Amino acid sequence: MKKILVGVDGSAESSTAADLAAELARAIGAELVLAYVVALPVSFAEPIPFEGWDLAERAHARQLLESLRTSFKTRAITVDTVIPSGPPAETLARMASAPDVELVVVGHRGRGAIARVLLGSVADRLVQISPKPVLVSR
C-alpha cells in the first residue's frame, strides 16, 4: 500500500498539513504515517542530555498522535504513528526513503521562531534532501 508520511510537531501548521495529507490519503487510497520526531535539545555547548530528557516530549508526542489518529478515524483511512529521534529533516528524509512512501507532507513552519533562526526551517531542509516529493502546507 502507498504511504504518505506526515511530519507533525503540535503546531497549527503541522495540524493543517496532517489534515491535508489525510484528505490526499483518502482520495488515493494511501496509508497515512504520522511522525513526531523527537530532536535533541538545542544548546550552544555540547549537548549532554540527562537520562530521561525525552520522556516529557515522548509523552506529548503520544498524546498528540493519538488525538490525530482519533480525529482521522471517520475518514476511512489507515493511520500509523511513529516517534523517531534525531534531527527532524534528516530523520523524515531517511523515513521517506522507504519504497512504499510516495509523498512527505509538512507544515511551512513549526513551533519556534528562535529555533528556526538558529537551525533553519525543517521544511526548507527537507525539500533539499528528501528522496521523495515534499508537499509544504501553508
What does this protein look like?
- The protein is built from five helices and five strands, in the order βαβαβαβααβ.
- Helix 1 links the parallel strand 1 and strand 2 (31-35).
- It has helices at 12-28, 55-72, 88-96, 113-119, 122-129; strands at 3-7, 31-35, 79-82, 101-107, 134-137.
- It has 138 residues and is an alpha/beta fold.
- The chain starts with a strand and ends with a strand.
- The chain has a five-stranded parallel beta sheet, with helices on both faces.
- It has one domain: HUPs (Rossmann fold, 3-Layer(aba) Sandwich), CATH 3.40.50.
- Residues 114-119 have low confidence and may be disordered.
Topology, please?
Blueprint: E1 3-7, H1 12-28, E2 31-35, H2 55-72, E3 79-82, H3 88-96, E4 101-107, H4 113-119, H5 122-129, E5 134-137
Parallel strand pairs: 1-2, 1-4, 2-3, 4-5
Helix pairs in contact: 3-5
Quick description:
This protein has 138 residues and is α/β, with parallel strands linked by helices.
Based on helices, strands and strand pairing, what is the structural class? alpha/beta
Whole-number radius of gyration? 15 Å
CATH architecture: 3-Layer(aba) Sandwich
Secondary-structure element series: EHEHEHEHHE
What is the straight-line distance between the termini? 27 Å
Instruction: Enumerate how many helices there are, as a single number.
Output: 5
Helix content: 40-55%
For this structure, the CATH topology is Rossmann fold
List the strand order in the largest sheet: 3-2-1-4-5
Give the mean pLDDT: 87
The low-confidence runs, each spanning 5 or more residues with pLDDT under 50, are: 114-119
Strand content: 15-25%
Domain count, please report it.
Answer: 1
> Which descriptor suits the 3D outline?
globular
CATH class descriptor: Alpha Beta
**Strand tally:** 5
**CATH homologous superfamily, by name?**
HUPs
Largest sheet: 5 strands, parallel
